[in-house]
Structure formats: C-alpha cells, structure tokens
Design goal:
Belongs to the glycosyltransferase 87 family. The protein has 390 residues and is an all-alpha fold. The protein has 18 helices and no strands. 67% of the residues lie in helices and 0% in strands. 42% of the residues are buried.
Length: 390
C-alpha cells in the first residue's frame, strides 16, 4: 500500500469523527458563552416590530452588535418558533460553510480533494480553537470564513463581480473583511466594489426601514463597538487595558503594528504577478492579523480567517515554511488551556496572551522573511517588466 493511500485510511476516520464530535457533542452541548442567543432574541424582536437595540451594554454577557443590515439577513432564524431548532440549524449552516470554505481552499491551492490533503485539512481545521469555538459559541464566523475564501478564490479566477457579492454579503453581516478590499484596489479592479458596496447598502436600507429603533444602532451600539473592553479581548489594546499598561505605550505598539503591516503588504506586492495565490492568501493573512492586533476587539476565534495564509505552506516561495510561523499558529489556533496551579501568574498571562503573541509572531515572521529576501537578490525573485505589464 502506498503512503498516500495509507494516509487516506488513517486520516479520514480521524477527520470525520472529529467533525462529528465538534458538531454533535461540543456545539450541541454549547457553552456559557452563547452568541446565538442574542441573535435569536434580536431577530425575534425585529420580526415582531419591537426595539432591537435595547440591551444593557454594561454587562459582560454577549451583546447583539449587528447592524440593521445583519439583522435583516439573519431574520429567517428568528422566524423559527423553536429556539433549539433554530440554534441547531445555525450550527449546521456554519459547519457547512466552514467545510465549503476548506473545499474552495483546496481548489485555490490546486490540491486534489481525493488525496490525503482533504482529511488532513479537515482534521486540522476542526482541531483549532477557532473552528471549535465558532461552533460551540454558535457564532456566524463560519459564514464569514466562507465569504472570505470565496472572495479570494473568485478574485483569482477573475470572476470579479461574484467576488464583490461574496464580500458584500460578509460586510452586510459584519465589517471584519472590509480591509481585504485593498486586494482588488491594488490591482485596479473596480468590479468587486460594486457588490461590496451595493449589497450592504441595500440590506442596510431594508433593515433600517424595518427596525423600529434603528437610530439607537448609531447612537449607542456603534460607539460601544469602538470602546476597548478588558475581558475576552486579545487585541493589543484589550491586553494593555487588562494589565494596566500605560495608554501611550499601547498607542505606540498599535502604531508600530500598523506600520509593520503596511510594510509587509508593500513588500508582498512583488509576488502579485508570478505567485498570485501566494500573494492573495499571504496578504490577506497579514492584513487580518494586523487588524486583530490593533482593533478595539480581537477575539481568538477570529483566527479562522488565518487558515488560508497557513495553508499557503504548500506553495513554492511560501512565507510560512518555517518553525516561527507554526509556533505562531499554535498560539492562535490551540485549544490548550495554559492556566497553572504551580505558576498561577505566568500561566494566566500565557492563557490570556497566547492569541496576541501568535498574531504578533506571524506578522513579524512574514515581515522578517520578506526583508531577508529583499536584502539578497539571490533570494528574491524580482518581477520582470514584461511580467508586470502583463
């Protein structure tokens, strides 16, 4: 028996049982953190013509923070009278979206879905904290992940109008992926911007018209989202607030991260012609890692959006073919619990900081390798003028 076939025999049972366990056991069991509960309650109020943005935002429980456009798109779940059925359906939709995104990634990287790569990627993804807690907390990020991967795949395939649709649907729910519009902007492709603007605008107009207290979203909810909270927040600002780091130091760190992100994006431009898939996936990962670090809220399970950059390891010229990148991946993907009875302070510090350190290490690793390649022409593939013109 060949090694690839043997790996198929080994990995498929492991992958299938891991998916079943994450969905039917962990996700159905749920957690004290329940993101869907607020969605269901808000969409029920929306459909009943009652105020949607009426929560007490001073509590530490999950809050409903979606714009009226997101409320409009999520409203079908509120139309289901049985909460348990609605939640299970939400879990199924997000599970299907994650699996669909992984399938699209395999096509993007030209990996054979019949090879052992398929169960390996499935197993690896559902092992992560990002996928596991997206399902356990019943969050919509599985759908956002599918929109991200579809956007990258459609950009690569030059199906630019549809790329705009994928981005527009994600932005109508939450603005997480908005910075990725820099990719078609760099390539001077205007078509994706049509769907990316029109879909959120249309759904916002519909949601605004049907939400009785839509004004409170701008008056109360939007300002709240700009505030830095000191719990369940792995951004630089959140970690700094929790540990009492002086604000000027936090601001300086955020500025440095923005600069590092911009420099990495600029250096990656050399790959956009000859190594387009590498450029798309690595640039998107660098941008999102930077956003998670500098935004007012960065939660560990956002790291699902970094799966494409880590899968770029299969590509020639990949910037994650090194141990620091995968140490970083451990930081933002692991399910390991780091609090320690023997070393409580350091264990608690690692437990709170490992996603932040992972994002920071990934960004730093990519930047250092780009600079290293740039300093030696033998390590750096310049873009020929003819190729650039093409």
């Amino acid at each position: 028996m060949s090694v690839p076939r043997l790996l198929n025999h080994i990995l498929w049972p492991l992958a299938i049982m891991t998916v079943i366990h994450r969905v039917l056991i962990k996700a159905v069991n749920g957690s004290i953190t329940n993101d869907f509960g607020t969605v269901y309650a808000a969409t029920r109020r929306f459909l009943a013509g009652e105020p949607v943005y009426s929560e007490n935002l001073l509590t530490v429980q999950p809050h409903y923070l979606y714009a009226p456009s997101g409320t409009f798109l999520l409203a079908p779940f509120g139309a289901i009278d049985n909460y348990t059925v609605a939640r299970w359906l939400f879990i199924i939709v997000n599970t299907a979206a994650i699996i669909g995104a992984l399938w699209l990634l395999m096509r993007l990287f030209d990996l054979d879905v019949r090879s052992f790569a398929a169960p390996a990627i499935l197993l690896g993804a559902f092992w992560t904290e990002a996928v596991t807690n997206t399902l356990v907390f019943t969050n919509v990020n599985g759908v956002i992940f599918l929109c991200q991967v579809a956007f990258l795949y459609l950009l690569h395939r030059r199906r630019l109008w549809w790329a705009g649709v994928a981005m527009g649907l994600s932005l109508a729910i939450k603005p997480m992926l908005a910075p990725l519009l820099v990719l078609p902007l760099i390539r001077k492709q205007w078509q994706p911007f049509v769907g990316a603007v029109a879909i959120p605008a249309a759904t916002m107009a519909a949601g605004w018209a049907l939400t009785v207290d839509a004004g409170r979203y701008l008056e109360v909810t939007a300002p709240y989202m700009g505030e830095v909270r000191d719990y369940y927040n792995s951004s630089i600002a959140g970690l700094g607030l929790y540990y009492g780091v002086p604000e000027p130091l936090v601001l300086a760190a955020r500025i440095l991260i923005v600069v590092a992100t911009l420099v990495a994006v600029w250096l990656l431009l050399d790959y956009r012609h000859n190594h387009e898939v590498l450029w798309l996936t690595t640039t998107s990962g660098v941008i999102l890692a930077g956003v998670f670090l500098v935004s007012s809220l960065g939660q560990m399970y956002y790291s699902m959006m970094l799966i494409p950059i880590m899968l770029s390891v299969v590509l020639d010229k990949s910037l994650v073919r090194n141990w620091p990148a995968w140490l970083a991946a451990y930081g933002f993907f692991t399910l390991d619990f780091w609090e320690s009875a023997r070393w409580p302070y350091y264990g608690r510090l690692l437990e709170f900081a490992h996603p932040t350190l992972g994002w920071l290490l990934l960004l730093s690793t990519v930047l250092v390798i780009l600079l290293w390649r740039r300093t030696d022409p033998r390590r750096h593939e310049r873009i020929a003028p003819a190729a650039a013109a093409a």
